Amino acid sequence: MESTVLVDSEVQSEVDRFVSLKLYTDGNPVEQAERHQRLQKETFNSVALPFFAFYDSTGQLAKTFQGTADKQQFLELLRSVK
To answer: From the CB of residue 5, how many other CB atoms can be counted at a distance below 10 Å?
Structure first.
């Protein structure tokens, strides 16, 4: 999704409404990836890739999404988060 859906200009326009944070749970350095995996597992009870978590302006978890989506599906997801 990172090289397809997320680079689309319409998707980017919606993504720009959010503060983005990337947590890499695979790759190098391995120790860091493993720490990030534990954090994802402890916080969201999931180690799925990709995994998206959306928080509202008060810091409350609003929605999560795991797996892949096409452009339209992801736009619907983004637009559903208020």
So the answer is: 19
